[in-house]
Amino acid sequence: MHYNQGFGEMLQCLLKGNGVPMILGIETSCDDTSAAIVRTDGYVIGNLLINQDEVHRPFGGIVPEIASRNHTFYLLNLIERLLEESRLGWKDIGGIAVTNRPGLLGSLLVGVITAKTLSLAKNKPFVGVHHLEGHIMAPFLSDEKHKAPLFFKDPFLALVVSGGHTALYRVNKFGNYNVLGETIDDAAGEAFDKFAKMLNLGYPGGAVIDRKAQSGNISRYNFPRGLGKEDNLNFSFSGLKTSALLQLEKMSDDEKSKNISDLCASYQEAIVDSLMIKVRKALKLYSLNKVIVTGGVSANSRLRFCIEKLAEESIEVVIPPLKFCTDNAAMIAYAGLKRMEANEFSDLSLTVSARSELGHV
Description:
Number of domains: 2
Number of helices: 12
CATH topology of the largest domain: Nucleotidyltransferase, domain 5
Distance between the termini: 12 Å
Largest sheet: 5 strands, mixed
Structural class: alpha/beta
Order of helices and strands: HEEEHHEHEHEEEHHHHHEHEH
Strand order of the largest sheet: 3-2-1-4-5
Low-confidence stretches: 1-6, 16-20
CATH class of the largest domain: Alpha Beta
Shape: globular
CATH superfamily of the largest domain: ATPase, nucleotide binding domain
Number of strands: 10
Mean pLDDT: 92
């Protein structure tokens, strides 16, 4: 991060009440184009998102070149629409926060170049934000339908689980994270999508599997819990995928169709159970009684149910509402605001990174 004295003084004036302290967030790390405006207290004034699922569905996954091209087409119009719908002007915006790592390089570049251009054109400070730090801030956003937890204090355990990331962190305070465990192969979201592809359920697969699992038997098929008995907090889903593939190879198309709900329920349970085993182990090992779950897979109904059951064991649990689970600019704006409050800003030398794990840098 780079500190810009002029921008720093400008923002501090806003934070002290001499202006309207609102931050514009930009998120283009993968295939969702999002822009948001967030107040200093984490209240979301507006959060818009354009989803590209329909464009990528024929390919069974995200095509990076298509994703970045669509960001270029949508982003500026989305920001203009956001300001219009929020009834705000650039005079109301105190700064710009943009995801610059990790993610698809082409997609990240669109967001970062846009943020730099707007910073110069509108004379606003900007800051690059780590995508996973944004996810960790997501449970603390609020809006007219959702109130953030008021008394949830650090340190706490954070399970960040999505299509590209699955990791456990000890959050000591904002900006201070210890990596406790992470996936050694696929992320949980990838495991969902790949199983859906095996069953020709379409893309993205996680939501489809969740729906079909509702009426299924979680114990019908005995899928493995990767690293479940190992004395560490890492995750692995490659063995689960292999086991599922071998099971499907033994079944006819008719058998798969008749047992689709049980297959989805058993496979989903293996993923959720793998996550819960490590969450419980981490809470005990580090004597923590607070946990957040965030990222796209935190929208999974079975995972939400199992995590919420921890509250019966005197564990404080926070999960963001569904609209803040997947990639969104509101979480980036809030994380960027916290960085700016600490006098951290970026300048025109800001770059992007495809891989930059939180807590390792």
